[in-house]
Amino acid sequence: MSNLDNLTSKILEDSNKRVKSILDKAENEKKSIIDSKVKTAKDEAENILKKSQIEAKSKAERVISNTYLKVRNEKLRAKQEIVDSVFDKAVESLNKMSKDKYLKFVKDVIGSLDIDGDEELIVSKEDAKKIDDKFLNELNNELANKGKKSQLKLSQEKRDLNGGFILYKNGIEINNSYDALVFSLRDELEQEIVSALFS
């Protein structure tokens, strides 16, 4: 019987050792799996954190960039309003010319143009009051002295001009209104004005 007890004891001992070995192996695998999952989770958390930091930085840079653009655009808009105001005041100033200066302006401009001399002079209702037959005769005499026709006449048509005049013939208009003249000079003068005002 003792052999049987020994054998049983041996089998139990071996079984216990195997169970312990299996349990140790399972515990090690469990630990390894948990460590691996924890490492993966930490790596993912770190990647998510880095990605969110990059996105936050990128978003902040976009917000700052957009703010700079808005500020720049506001400055440009303000400068443009000031420049527009300068040109509007130039037209206003031209409009305040005395009758004599206005008539000299009309005479000088017409004298400098290559026209036939039989055009119609279109002006505003206000400026029409400044032009009389004597002035038209003087203009026509000057045109005749230059070998041109001397048939320039004041048109019955009155335009809503902001000063100046338009010469009209056969559907063609030469616009010498103050607005058109100031606008034609704007490109070359605008940079000078900006430099003078904002430097």
TrEMBL record:
Q: Does the keyword Lipoprotein apply?
A: no
Q: Where are the transmembrane segments?
A: none
Keyword entries, A-Z: ATP synthesis, Coiled coil, Hydrogen ion transport, Ion transport, Transport
Say yes or no: keyword Coiled coil present.
Answer: yes
Q: Which residues form a coiled coil?
A: 9-62
Q: Which SUPFAM superfamilies match?
A: V-type ATPase subunit E-like
What InterPro entries does its record include?
ATPase_E_C, ATPase_V1_Esu, Gly-tRNA-synth_heterodimer
Quote the function comment for this protein: Produces ATP from ADP in the presence of a proton gradient across the membrane.
Task: Give the family, as the similarity comment puts it.
Answer: Belongs to the V-ATPase E subunit family.
Protein name per its UniProtKB record: V-type proton ATPase subunit E
Name its species: Clostridium oceanicum
**The organism's taxonomic lineage, starting at the top:** Bacteria, Bacillati, Bacillota, Clostridia, Eubacteriales
Q: Give the gene name.
A: atpE
